[in-house]
Design a protein that fits this description.
Blueprint (H helix, E strand, L loop, with lengths): L3 H15 L10 E4 L6 H11 L6 E5 L7 H4 L3 H11 L7 E7 L2 H14 L6 E5 L5 H11 L4 E4 L12 H17 L9 H15 L1
Parallel strand pairs: 1-2, 1-4, 2-3, 4-5
Length: about 200
């Protein structure tokens, strides 16, 4: 079995790869990906308050890693409540319960925005750090005419209980890339090695 310190280093290496990040810049809208954390909602609210976009949008209900299992309410309802608590007015929130996975979010987000009067050319994507690369790759493949800016949430390093999520994210990049659901992602050999170490140590 691998030493715990090695697994910690491997987890940090994978997370650093998954947490693709760009400097914030002016955009037409901030889009929050679905997930079981309010950290992306908090990051989106701060970006909104800093003036990077006039609206915040989201369309998620929940899913395999969904917050609906954690909070007992659909994600789009929870997100709006948190944004209101953080001082974001209803007029700046565009939300609906439409999707249960990242691919559907990428497919339905743009039509939803257009229905609400937003013809976006640039969108800030906000997800959990470990979800950010897959979210970007999926939106980039499904909506290639739009520029997506990666602004992942601030979260502490994943605990042991989330190591399986790190492995799942690498697996999904490979599987969904092969299916054509997302833009092909080149995964460095050291990331694949770290993934297998964690899989063998914790999930074998």
């Amino acid at each position: 079995m691998y030493m715990q310190i090695d697994v910690d280093a491997d987890a940090a290496r994978i997370l650093d790869f998954l947490k693709v990040e760009d400097p914030p810049e002016q955009a037409d809208v901030i889009f929050i990906l679905g997930g079981s954390s309010v950290a992306p909602v908090v990051r989106a609210a701060q970006l909104y308050k800093d003036g990077y976009a006039p609206n915040i949008a989201f369309v998620s209900i929940g899913g395999r890693f969904g917050g609906d299992h954690v909070w007992g309410v659909p994600e789009h309802i929870k997100y709006k409540d948190v944004l209101n608590d953080l001082g974001v007015p209803d007029k700046s929130i565009l939300s609906a319960g439409l999707t249960t996975n990242t691919l559907d979010e990428a497919k339905q987000a743009i039509p939803f925005l257009k229905e609400n009067g937003v013809n976006a050319e640039k969108i800030i994507l906000v997800a959990r750090p470990m979800h950010q690369r897959r979210a970007w790759a999926t939106f980039n493949k499904q909506q290639p005419a739009i520029k997506f800016i990666n602004c992942p949430a601030d979260e502490p390093d994943p605990a042991d209980t989330e190591l399986s999520r790190l492995v799942a994210e690498i697996d999904r990049l490979i599987v969904y890339g092969a299916k054509g659901d997302l833009s092909a992602v080149t995964i460095p050999a050291e990331i694949l090695i770290s993934t297998e170490k964690i899989r063998d140590t914790y999930l074998g």
